[in-house]
Design a protein that fits this description.
globular, about 25% helix, 9-stranded mixed β-barrel, about 290 residues, alpha+beta, disordered N terminus, Lipocalin
Length: about 290
């Protein structure tokens, strides 16, 4: 009996060693598979064979304050009341290859006029639609809505703005508008959007940079990984600038589970700015009663 137990113990030991060897041999394969699965979780998902850009996105820069490199500065208005709350944050700039924008002489004069009249004359202060490309880097998130085919939609939290990206060849739009008319096409993994016929009333930032209605704005959205889009813009406006110029920045995905656009219909916030002069010298009817 003792001999039988010894044989059984030896057989069990051999079996355990064999199982351990099998597990050890299988471990690298499982690790590789897990690594591949993890890599797949951050790979570029596709819709209709194109990168999936769906999501809520936002910049992390100060381009809306000034596209150029700039230092921190006092609040542009009411600094005695706002203190540091509305102080201008410093920024490295988003211009590509330049530290300034190549205005023509007459257009430079208009820019200087805009700059001196800011912030009150800034269309953002009055809650006018931001135009393109400012809508992308204004200090509010935006959402890309993309299907497997057909047109795309970009919705913006600021002023509840939106624009349709018509996925077809570029045409001549019938009318100028604040947001212009946008046409999209895929160039490999990059979404190229051409926007024409903006009304020339929007600014590019809070210091008064602007476009004319003749401007062609070409945006390129390239998904670098699941949570980052490389955003490159080329502006060609021969009425305003001596040559085409570019800006570049990164868009970051909002990854919180409840990421969404909230309500920022800002017209009521701008009423006193836009219509306040109508209240001057208005008789106080309450005190007369």
């Amino acid at each position: 009996m003792e001999r039988i137990w010894k044989c059984a113990a030896a057989a069990a030991a051999v079996l355990m060693v064999a199982q351990g060897a099998a597990l050890a041999a299988d471990a690298p394969a499982k690790a590789s598979k897990a690594k591949a699965t993890h890599a797949g979780s951050v790979s570029l998902a596709t819709l209709g064979g194109h990168p999936n850009l769906n999501g809520v996105w936002q910049v992390m820069n100060t381009a809306d304050w000034d596209l150029r490199p700039h230092d921190a500065a006092n609040a542009p208005a009411a600094a005695e009341k706002l203190g540091a709350l509305e102080a201008v944050p410093p920024g490295l700039g988003v211009l590509v290859g330049d530290t300034d924008i190549p205005y023509k002489a007459e257009a430079k004069a208009q820019y200087e006029t805009n700059r001196k009249s800011a912030p009150k004359a800034d269309p953002e202060a009055a809650c006018y639609l931001p135009g393109i490309p400012r809508a992308t880097y204004i200090d509010h998130p935006f959402q890309i809505v993309q299907g497997a085919d057909g047109d795309m939609l970009m919705a913006y939290e600021y002023a509840s703005a939106n624009r349709l990206i018509k996925m077809k060849k570029v045409e001549v739009p019938p009318i100028d508008t604040w947001m212009g008319t946008s046409y999209g096409q895929w160039e490999g993994k990059t979404l190229k959007v051409t926007t024409l016929s903006q009304n020339g009333m929007s600014w590019l930032d809070r210091v008064g940079d602007y476009l004319s209605p003749d401007a062609t704005v070409i945006e390129r959205f390239t998904l670098k990984d699941h949570d980052h889009i490389q955003y490159d813009v080329t502006i060609d406006d021969p009425t305003t600038f001596s040559k085409p110029w570019k800006m570049s920045m990164v868009l970051y995905r909002h990854v919180e589970p409840n990421a969404q656009l909230l309500d920022f219909r800002c017209v009521p916030f701008a009423d006193l700015l836009v219509y306040g002069d109508l209240l001057k010298d208005k008789p106080n009817t309450d005190s007369a009663k």
